[in-house]
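Page 47, continued from p. 46.
Same chain as before, 141 aa.
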Amino acid sequence: MVSLVAEGEPAVVMISSTSCGYCARSLSDIAGIANGDSLPRLRVLTLEGTSGGQAMARQAGVIGAWHAEPVQRSAAALIELNLPGTPVFMMIDAAGRLRRTMPGYPGREGLRAWVSVMSGASDSLVAPNWQELQRSPRTSE
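Result:
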């Protein structure tokens, strides 16, 4: 079991894959919006493992992200997590509850509010039409 967020602190979890062009593009957009600032509240869970995720983030210019990997192979992880594909972004609030999900590549403008949380400048997202979920993904098995 791996804890994805620090207790009492919101975070954004990005589920990515090293073979996903939209994941690489999202990371580049995130780095551009952050403009060299560290993103300590960004948790990148890369399906193929942490080394691939760290390399993708480094190449994109993302600084300060925390990296994790699933226990299972990438295809099994997608099925286990019931994900349509990558990237997927999840907003976890300070209480450890999943508050918002955003599957797919949202474009640079769609990532701005999320980067604000990743950097610690904001504790919440303000945008209409995001799905509220009731389960807590505080840990990943």
